[in-house]
Amino acid sequence: MQTASFPDQRVQQLLGIDTPIIQAGMVWASGAKLAAAVSNAGGLGLIGAGSMKPDLLREQIRKARRLTLKPFGVNIPLLRGDVEDLVQVVLEEEVKIIFGSAGSAKRFTPRFKEAGCVVAHVVPGVTFAKKVEDAGCDLVVAEGFEAGGHNGVDMVTTFSLIPQVVDAVSIPVLAAGGIADGQGIAAALALGASGVQIGTRFAATVESSAHDNYKQAVVSADDRATVFHLRQIGPARMFRNAWTERVRAAEEQGASPEELKEILGSKRERLGIFEGDLEEGQVEAGQGSGLIRDVPTVAELMQRLLEEYASTTAKFCT
Amino acid sequence: MQTASFPDQRVQQLLGIDTPIIQAGMVWASGAKLAAAVSNAGGLGLIGAGSMKPDLLREQIRKARRLTLKPFGVNIPLLRGDVEDLVQVVLEEEVKIIFGSAGSAKRFTPRFKEAGCVVAHVVPGVTFAKKVEDAGCDLVVAEGFEAGGHNGVDMVTTFSLIPQVVDAVSIPVLAAGGIADGQGIAAALALGASGVQIGTRFAATVESSAHDNYKQAVVSADDRATVFHLRQIGPARMFRNAWTERVRAAEEQGASPEELKEILGSKRERLGIFEGDLEEGQVEAGQGSGLIRDVPTVAELMQRLLEEYASTTAKFCT
C-alpha cells in the first residue's frame, strides 16, 4: 500500500484535520452521525443545516460533540428565511467551522470571523469566488455542474471551474462536483485544488441518514442517471424519475416559473432522500453516482479514498 | 524544467507518436497546416473533414503529407450525407488513422480495419463507449459536456465520464472536453485516461485556420462565456452572442424542432469560426476557453503543455 501525501497543507492547517477531504453538508443525509464519523476518520464532517429547524440543528451539534473530539463544521444555506436563527444557533453553540452556500458570503462572514470561525463558501463560478475572497472567507468551495443538489445556472463543470477559480483567488480552493473516489481527488489536486468536498459518495455510506432506497439508487446509477432541471426557479441535479419527467416535459413546453413551482410543490427533497420515494421525490445526487457501487462505513470509505489517491498519484512518480 | 513522462504508453504505440496529445478534428479550424504542426511537435494532428467537401479533404491530406513526415489522421463526422465519399477519399489517400464522430462506429470500422487503419471514435457516454469497443475500434475518445461544438444530450461531464468509461472498456481511453493546459492533461490521466484530445486550445493557435476574431474571442472568454443549446436538433456548445440569445429565448418558450432549425439556418459554423462573425455565427468553443490567454504557435504550445504536465505531476512525487 502507498502512503497518501498531499502537496498542499493549507486546508489541513486551517481546519485542524489530517486529510483535505471535506464531507459536504447535504439535506436529509448529513446529521451528527455522518459528520462525526468523517471527522473521526481524519477528514472534516459537516452537519447540513439545510434540512434542519434551528432546534434540531442545535441538538445535532451537541450530538456531534459527543461523538467526536475532532473538528467538525456546519453548512448553512444562507438564503433560508430563518437564516438568522440558524446563525444564532451555530454562534451560541460555538461551532468554529462554517460552510456557507447559496446567498451572499458578505452578509454573515464578518460575524463569523469575529467569533473566531474559519469560514468557507460554496460557489459555482469565478466571479462568485472572487466575491467570497473579498468577503473575507478563508476558503472557497468551487462546485461544478456535475454536483448533486442545488447548483449554478451557468453549468460550469468541475474540470473547467477549478483551475479558473484557482487562478482568480489566493485563498485555498476546495473542489466539489463529481468526486467519488481517490482518482477524482488526485485529478482535483492536479487541477490546482488544495482539497476536495465530496457529497454523494458520503450520502451512500452506512452513517448517512438518507433512506436505504436512496443509497441503493446511488449504487445502481449509471452515468446518465441524473438530470439537471429547474434552472428558472432553483437549478438542481437529481435522479431522473416520474416527477423529473413531468418537470422536463413542462420545461420543454416553456412552463413559467409559477407553473414550475406548482409542479415542484413542497418537501420533495425530504420525500426523495429521507423517505426514499424514488419516483415522486427530488432525489438529489451527482453524476459521480455512476462510480459508486457499495454502501461502506465512513471509516472503510476514507481508507479506500486514501489508498486510491496514493496509487493514482504514484503512477506519475517513476 | 521537469521531463514529462506518461504512465501509459498504449496510445503512443498505437498511433506512432511521442506524446499522447491528440488535436481534435474541428470544423473550419483544423486543416493540413494545424494537423501537420501538431504531428511535427510530437502529438497527433487531425484534419477535420466536417467542414470539407471530398475534394478539399483530398487536397488537405496531400498538403499535410508535404508538411510532415509524422503520422496524422482525419476526423470524419459519420452522419454527413456524403460520408461515403469522404470515406472513399481517406481510403484512396491511404490515411492510416481515422477518428469517427457522430453516428455509429459499426458502419465503417470493418472497412477501415481491413485497410490497416487505427480507428478511434468519439462518444459522450458509457453505453456508446461499449459499442465503440464492440465495433472493433482501437481507441475511444470520451468527450465531456464542457467540450466545444457538438456534444451529447446527456450532459455528462469530463470529470464524471472519463473514469466511468475507463471502467467499462478495455481499449485505451482519450479524454476530451475542458482540457486546455498541462494541469488538465495530468487530471485526465489521474481519472484513468491514457491520453487526451484537445480542441479549443489548438483552435486558438497561429496555425489554426479559424478567423482571428474567433481566436481573440477564445482569449478574452471567461468561465461563463459558453452556452449549450439546440438539444432537440443537435446539441452544441458555443460562445453566447446575439444569435444564441435568440435560440435561448425560443427554447425557453418551448420552440419546436422545426422552429429551432429555422433559427439555426445554414452555414452558422462557417460564419462564426471561419468568417469571424461573433454575433451571428455559431462560434463553437469549450468551457476551457477561460484558461486560454494567448495565441501561440503549435510548437510553443506543445512545449508548454509538456512543461505544465511535468510540473503538475512532480508535485505528487516528494
Could you characterize the architecture of this molecule?
The structure is a homodimer of 318-residue chains. By secondary structure, chain A is α/β, with parallel strands linked by helices. Chain A folds into 2 domains: 10-209 and 293-313, Aldolase class I (TIM Barrel, Alpha-Beta Barrel); 212-287, no CATH class. Helices cover 41% and strands 15% of the residues of chain A. Chain A contains 14 helices and 11 strands. Chain A has an 8-stranded parallel beta sheet with strand order 1-9-8-6-5-4-3-2. A 3-stranded antiparallel beta sheet of chain A has the order 7-11-10, with helices on one face. The longest helix of chain A is centred in the last third of the chain and has 17 residues, at 298-314. Chain A is globular and about 50 Å long.
CATH architecture of the largest domain in chain A: Alpha-Beta Barrel
Helix content of chain A: 40-55%
Largest interface comes to:
A-B, 53 and 53 residues
Widest β-sheet, arrangement of strands of chain A: 1-9-8-6-5-4-3-2
- SSE ordering of chain A: HEHEHEHEHEHEEHEHEHHEEHHHH
Structural class of chain A: alpha/beta
Overall mean confidence score, pLDDT of chain A: 97
Q: How many distinct beta strands of chain A?
A: 11
Oligomeric state of the chains?
Answer: homodimer
Low-confidence residue ranges of chain A: none
Distance from first to last alpha carbon of chain A: 16 Å
Instruction: Characterize the overall form of chain A.
Output: globular
Q: Can you tell me the CATH class of the largest domain in chain A?
A: Alpha Beta
